[in-house]
Amino acid sequence: MANREPRDLFTAGHMRKFLVIVDESPEGETALYYAARRVHRTGGGLSLLFVIEPMEMTHWLGVEETFREEQYHKARAVFRLRARKLKTWGFEEIVPEEIIREGHLAEEIVKLIEEDRQVGILVLGASTDPKGPGPLVSSLAGAKAGTFPIPITIVPGNLTLEEVNGLA
User: What is the pLDDT of residue 145?
Assistant: First the structure.
């Protein structure tokens, strides 16, 4: 990661954004709830990122184009589901920024953080799978944690919404 000026998210005209990676996982939903609760309590914005990972090697351009189109439709569907969840939870006032990127997940997260200086906190949900918290949490909160450009909040996937309320 390149050397950058420190983020000053509390000066006039700056709004801190919470960045949540969206997918269809239960722990992703818990991370979204945590971030929405924090935005509701402290102000700021909410950005949702859906990353379309590249297909495994294919020699058929039509297959790749169809895959990409399906992934864009899936991203929009996931955004709609998450918007409904926000309303169900009582966060109607929060209108999240919806971002779709193509590439490798961890790389796209870092690029977005580099490009959008208002992103101040990355919120991830940790899987309850006995194999571990998930590859993204392991990667970003593991070896890269000391050099990551912003704080990472990891929300345990086994927390209830009531428990998250008490923490957020």
Answer: 67
What CATH code would you report for 17-41+52-167? 3.40.50.620
Query: Would you give the end-to-end CA distance of the chain in angstroms?
Result: 29
Task: Write down the pLDDT at residue 113.
Answer: 94
Encode pLDDT of 2-16 as tens digits: 444 555 544 444 579
Kindly state the helix (H) or strand (E) to which residue 2 belongs, with its residue range. Answer: none
Res. 54 pLDDT band, cuts 50 70 90: confident
Which residues, 6 or more positions from 81, have their beta carbon under 8 angstroms from its beta carbon? 24
Angle at 108 between CA 105 and CA 30, to 5 degrees: 55
* Contact (Cβ atoms closer than 8 angstroms) between residue 168 and residue 37: yes
Q: How is the chain split into domains, by residue range?
A: 17-41+52-167
Sheet harboring 152-156: ordered strands across? 97-102, 45-52, 17-21, 119-126, 152-156
**Which bin fits 129, alpha (ψ -120 to 50), beta or left (φ > 0)?**
beta
Contacts of 12 (CB under 8 A, 6+ apart): none
